[in-house]
Amino acid sequence: MPWSRRRSRLVRPVALAILLLAIPARAADRSLEYAVKSTFLYKFASFVDWPAGAFEHESSPFSLCVVGGDPYGGRIREAVTGQSVGRHPIVLRELVKAQSRTGCHAMFVSASETESATEVLNAMGGSPTLTITDSSLGQTAGIIHFVIVDGRVSFDIDNVAAAKNHLVISSKLLALARRVNTARRGTAE
Fold first, then answer.
1. Nearest one of 56, 22, 58, 61 to 39, comparing CA atoms
2. Which of 21, 43, 49, 163 could tie 168 with a disulfide, CB 3.0–4.6 Å?
3. Model confidence pLDDT, tens digit, residues 71-97
4. Is residue 29 part of a domain?
């Protein structure tokens, strides 16, 4: 593996950790909170392995879908414009309703007028889609769920849900999470 590629693999987790720990998201400064969350939406993808066949080609677009509109005032589009996940340029798609065969690699679930967050997450269960939710939805949580802890943006990861969606989350990202669910519901952790 060429040095530049190895260096890139080392720099990404360190950069994400610094960003996560260094940027406070004070309630008074929602714009900073929204900018951080918008950036994380696509940065998470660098730490996830999708199953074979999730991408048609080596350079096929990475489809980041938003269901229910951008609650961050257009910051998601600003954050992803010109970005890529590996060799996959990011394409932002706004959906009114989620379906299991949407072709979304990652899906941010916001409030929707046509279906609840729980319905969206249930529709995506078993498909190779990284679901991401925000604490504004309450306890309804996707594979990655944003939370604010001590004035900083953090996140929880449901690794069981990731496995059900045939996704493998890097141990580097798991180590940065506030909480990681590794036990099926109803069993001891």
1. 22
2. 49
3. 888 899 999 999 999 999 999 998 877
4. yes
pLDDT at residue 26 in the model: 47
* pTM of the complete model beyond 0.85: no
* Cα–Cα distances in angstroms (integers) from residue 38 to residues 88, 108, 174, in the given order: 18, 10, 19
Angstrom CA distances, 173 to 100, 146, 169, stand at 25, 13, 7
- Calpha distance 44→38 (Å, rounded): 11
Number of separate domains in the chain: 1
Locate tokens 């529709």: which residue? Answer: 123
Percent of the chain as helix, strand, coil, to the nearest 5: 35, 25, 40
Q: Is residue 187 part of a domain?
A: no
Closest CA to 65 of 103, 116, 35: 103
DSSP reduced 3-state for 160:
helix
